[in-house]
Amino acid sequence: MNRWRPIVLASLALALAGCSGEAAPTTRGVYLLMDTSGTYTQELDKAQALINALLAKLQPGDSLAVARIDTGSFNEKDIVAKVTFDDRPSVANQQKRQFRDAIDRFVKQVKPAPYTDITGGILQASEYLNEKAPGRKTVLIFSDLKEDLKKGYVRDIPLTVDGFEVIAINVTKLRADNVDPREYMTRLEDWQRKVESGGGSWRVLNDLDRLDRILG
Asked: In the Cβ-directed half-sphere of 131, how many Cα atoms lie within 13 Å?
């Protein structure tokens, strides 16, 4: 028996094992949370511009969902529109048009919510994206980041966003922030701490003229 044969066979077995492993997915999943509480609904035209930018950038195989932030956001019923784009470009373009139309209809008829459950929205976003299992997971929060929970709602829950990119967009300043800017700064720091302690990365993007920087 050739003394090199066992070595060759072992090397071949390792090579075959490596080939049988599944490649890591290269798709992207984006979940956008839109604040619909109080006067923030006046900002939703900017959210539409953001969604149009996302639709232009996302590719076949990528997933996009848009959900409202309202009184109880840990709920699939708050998803306004969701889609995974078809591999065929012509079909994907049709899906993008339908998605845009759904958002336009929502913005025209939306009524302000009395409370703001941001934590519930992030929990729903992470659940959705984990089920989709894209290669890159991004949660966008279009909000002033002021959480206002209805009595009885429990949201003192650690976020599980390991490997997620969380981006806060258009974080407008409230009247109280103008009186004491520390409130605004503390609000941002608190959310950063929550996200990073859950394993995610955090950044804030308030310059809507630089929407091209969102997906990198």
From this structure: 11
d(CA 56, CA 64): 12
Please report where in the chains the tokens 């950044």 appear, as a residue: 203
| Tokens 């994206």 sit on residue | 129
Token pair 């923030």 is at which residue?
Answer: 40
**Cβ atoms of residues 169 and 32 within 8 Å:** no
The predicted-structure confidence for 199-211, as pLDDT tens digits, reads as follows 999 999 998 877 7
β-pairing, 136-142 with 28-35? parallel
pLDDT tens digit sequence for 14-32? 454 455 456 777 999 999 9
**pTM for the model:** 0.87
Q: Given pLDDT bands bounded at 50, 70 and 90, which one contains residue 118?
A: very high
For 216, the token pair is 């990198």
Please, what is the Cα angle at 120 between 189 and 37, to 5 degrees? 80
Q: Which two tokens stand for residue 94?
A: 């049709």
Which amino acid does the sequence have at 150? K
- Do the Cβ atoms of 128 and 31 come closer than 8 Å? yes
